[in-house]
Amino acid sequence: MGKQLWGSRFSKSLAKEANDFNSSLHFDSVMFEEDIQGSIAHATMLGETNIISKEESQKISNGLKEILEDIKQGKLQFDYDLEDIHTQIEKWLIDKIGETGKKVHTGRSRNDQVALDLRMYLKKEVLKIKTLLLNLLKTLINLQKKHTQTYLSGYTHLQRAQVITFAHYLGAYVEMYKRDFERLENAFERIDTMPLGAGALACSTYNIDNKMTAELLNFQNVMLNSLDAVSDRDFVIETASCLSIIMMHLSRFAEELILYTTSEFKFVEFDDGFTTGSSLMPQKKNPDILELIRGKTGRVYGNLFSILTVMKSLPLAYNKDMQEDKEGIFDSIRTVKDCLAILPEVLTTMKINKDKMLLSVNEGFLNATEVADYLVKKGVPFRDAHGISGKLVVYCINNNKNLTTLSLNEYKQKSELFEDDIYQKITPEAQVNNKTIVGSPSENSVMKVIKINEKWLEKKENNND
Fold first, then answer.
1. Considering 8, 11, 157, 279, which one is annotated as catalytic?
2. Which distant-in-sequence residues (6+ apart) come within 8 Å of 290 by Cβ?
3. How much is the pTM?
4. pLDDT digit string, tens, across residues 144-169
5. Mean of the pLDDT values across residues 448-464?
6. Contacts of 277 (CB under 8 A, 6+ apart)
7. Does 278 qualify as catalytic in the annotation?
């Protein structure tokens, strides 16, 4: 069992069982690059402020750079008897450059060090997730362009409601994922604040320059309170919340596509490369990929509630409970990245069944609102027009007809205001394209929104480097 950095106070080593329970190296080792980069910046600052000599600073930095390359090339293996990633890197450094390596921790605590590592890690991962969101958005927008005249039923209460287009349907999720992206942008601003220099909780007597360290590590700001710097994890909670909202949107989308691929809908069909079969029933083609996206949403929610619960009663400053901040957010990041990576592949390979979508429009009295609106435009109060249209629907149901097959005489039995032009007003095309305001499902409106979103996408891609 390796020696703890704090071991000089104790007369005996930590029991193996306690060490195993206490150790975080098996999960915080993913932050090895952040830990090394943070230590290089810290050592550089120590040299520039003459807290240690520049020769020592350079020696430490060079040793850390060599360690980083050795890890990446597989020449170094983590010793999971050690307590954490900080202990592991420092041990390797001392082994490599000798006593000088012990000076890397001057003016620093593991409390501010781990907060730094985690912020650096989340910055990197949030950028990756933003890139994946942009790719999903680009996929959806490209699909939209192909389906501005693909008519289908929109639903409320899972009952057929009004005619929309598949492009308009996809556009709803474009807007959701745009907001998801912007939430991550906002969260990134609060992650991008450097805690190093706070020490254990009350800074150091060394005249360190944390603004210099922040510049070296490309942080925009430094923490303004040392207690806050080491004792809060709201940046983790906010990130976990953003990821949970992303998964909620992914899950809703997945659920609808799963419904749309059933025999009862048959709106879409997933490619064989993204479906599975049954070990018993030869005919089955199961949407397992989307079901997994839907199912994985629960674990991301759970990770959010876990860190909220950990932090809810912790007194200032650092407490070991806060070691529980990492596994959940690491898992959420992996999960969201996996889901965002595979969904565009599912979407670009799925088949859109336009005929089935159109059938859903023609069968469900979706043009009843247009019938009412027709009368309103002729001066009938909407509530009365609503009642007339409802009576026509009942008449159709009782006589096995629909609103497009009623004779003009049958229309006039309910209102003399109906004329021959009623039939042109209630076609799927008319139901969609007569709605012209921004946000409507008409082809003209959808294409305008697509152009707006393509400009948004281009701007975000340029800024996300």
1. 157
2. 254, 255, 257, 258, 270, 346
3. 0.92
4. 999 999 999 999 999 999 999 999 99
5. 95
6. 284, 285, 286
7. yes
Report, as an integer, the average pLDDT of 132-140: 98
Residue count of the chain, please give it.
Answer: 465
Closest by Cα among 122, 320, 342 to 231: 320
Distance of alpha carbon 266 from alpha carbon 361, whole angstroms: 14
What's the rounded mean pLDDT across residues 298-321? Answer: 97
Return the HEC string of 205-239.
CCCCCHHHHHHHCCCCEECCCHHHHHHCCHHHHHH
Work out the end-to-end distance of the chain between its first and last CA atoms, rounded to an integer number of angstroms: 43
* Catalytic residue (one of 13, 26, 53, 278): 278
Q: What is the 3-state secondary structure (H, E, C) of 31-46?
A: HHHHHHHHHHHHHHHH
- 1 has a pLDDT exceeding 60: no
Q: pLDDT (tens digit, 9 = 90+) per residue, 287-306?
A: 999 999 999 999 999 999 99
Q: In 98-242, at which residue ranges do the beta strands (DSSP E only) sit?
A: 151-156, 159-165, 193-194, 221-222
DSSP category for residue 400: T
Question: String of b and e for 291-309 (b: at least 16 CB within 10 Å)?
Answer: eebbebbeebbebbebbee
